[in-house]
Amino acid sequence: MTPEQQLEHLIGDASEVHTREELLAKLKLGRPLRIKYGADPSAPDLHLGHSVPMMRLRRFQELGHQVIFIIGDFTGRIGDPSGRSRTRPMLSQEQIKRNAETFAAQAGKILDISACEIRYNSEWLDGLGSDGLIKLASRYTVARMLERDDFSRRMAAETPISIVEFLYPLVQAYDSVAVAADVEVGGTDQLFNFLVARDIMRSYDMEPQVAATWTLLVGTDGTEKMSKSLGNYVGIAEAPAEMFGKLMSISDDILPHYYALLTDVGFDGAERIDRQIQSRELHPMEAKKRLARIIVERYHGAEAAAQAQAEFEAVFSRGELPSEMPEHRVAACDLEDGRAWIVRLVTDCGAASSNSEARRLIRGGGVRLNDERIDDETANVEVSTGDILQVGKRYFAKIVVE
RNA sequence: GGAGGGAUGCCCGAGUCUGGUCAAUGGGAGCAGACUGUAAAUCUGCCGGCGAAUGCCUACGGGGGUUCGAAUCCUCCUCCCUCCA
């Protein structure tokens, strides 16, 4: 590949790059570039949102560049303001260590983790000292800090902004100095931080890193960005069936968005699929199944993906029972004349978190025993081994009396 | 340092002047049901906990108080915001 082709391959689908010219110049040097990616020390469960920049990192890696993961253990102790309206909880050192290990294990599903450099930023930040920190802070101004959209929004909304939040971009910028980053990649929410890093690097007489950001993946709810705390995520480590199901439940509207960011078809391919759907050549459900198949395959292999699809079609299209169901054991001595209170049954098997919730589900008609709806919350139902308890569309359990 | 405003359920936000009828109006999110393609849209119900139930417990930033009774009144504390310096 020529440097120009490499450029296109690497950042062709990025939403912002500062600057393409600089990256091209760096690629022409012919040496392995140092590609920085800041790993969140508080989110050990990676989801598809994380996979977007990571898939791009893999491309860098395939072209012989050096990927550097920065575990923000130091910054994790401060709390990260990026794109959120609330400061994060602080984490303990052991917690961070454990998270970093899960991170590496999960990231390894996307790229070659053994070829990555994994660094903790406490390595250089602990030794910085208060004078070092103040000197670092003197390299930037409050006015420039306030340019950040998140800060101005929070000022307007009268929500507090802590001073440490001003420090965070600086410290993160210092990471780039410490590892001599050539390129930093991440989501668009990181753009501000990346650009601060460019300024800070310049002030250290270093060549500024190239900042490349990709659109944030929208969550399964179709509106907010994918995040664990919003519960709209598909985890990389999730079981094939879960993954497949979650992907099938996304809104049609975001289907092209998912294709573009999560598969190799690219923006053009995603657009083509969208056109086929518009012209009714392709059923949206079919397009969604293909997408789910591709993604499950990436994390679990072709066989598991095929199985997940078959299972999905059986359970949700044809209304059959799942091939595997968790067993719910009931002690015979807890039964009266072979009967159990339906509310207890639903709560005990874990389908409801409280009796009140179980009552609601029952009243709402969401509970079935052997395919028969039970809507009386006071019912004492006869149970025996092999009975199937269903709560909502997705929860099934096989009852075992012992 | 001074002056003023505020803190309510997952989130937003009424209620506070004129104490009880407040588990607390309304919206959003969420859950279940109907319709479907486990899509969207729409419609219906639910939406603190425990109880078969009259009911009981916990909850309106925290403590103390007034009262038969407090989200609502008094008091101290904590935190946030705005303006001035």
Description:
With 402 residues, this protein is an alpha/beta fold. The chain folds into three domains: 3-214, HUPs (Rossmann fold, 3-Layer(aba) Sandwich); 240-317, no CATH class; 327-401, RNA-binding S4 domain (Structural Genomics Hypothetical 15.5 Kd Protein In mrcA-pckA Intergenic Region, Chain A). It contains 18 helices and 13 strands. The strands form three sheets. Strands 1-6-5-2-3-4 form a six-stranded mixed β-sheet, sandwiched between helices. The longest helix is centred in the C-terminal third of the chain and has 17 residues, at 284-300. The termini are far apart. It binds one RNA strand of 85 nucleotides through helix 12, helix 15, helix 16 and helix 18.
Write the layout of secondary structure elements.
Layout: H1 3-11, E1 16-18, H2 20-28, E2 34-39, H3 48-62, E3 66-71, H4 73-78, H5 93-107, E4 117-120, H6 122-125, H7 129-137, H8 142-145, H9 149-156, H10 164-179, E5 183-187, H11 191-203, E6 210-214, H12 240-248, H13 255-262, H14 266-278, H15 284-300, H16 302-317, E7 327-330, E8 339-341, H17 342-348, H18 355-363, E9 367-369, E10 372-373, E11 380-382, E12 388-391, E13 395-401
Parallel strand pairs: 2-3, 2-5, 3-4, 5-6, 7-13
Antiparallel strand pairs: 1-6, 8-11, 9-10, 9-12, 12-13
Helix pairs in contact: 1-2, 10-11, 12-15, 12-16, 13-14, 13-15, 15-16, 17-18
The structure holds one RNA strand of 85 nucleotides.
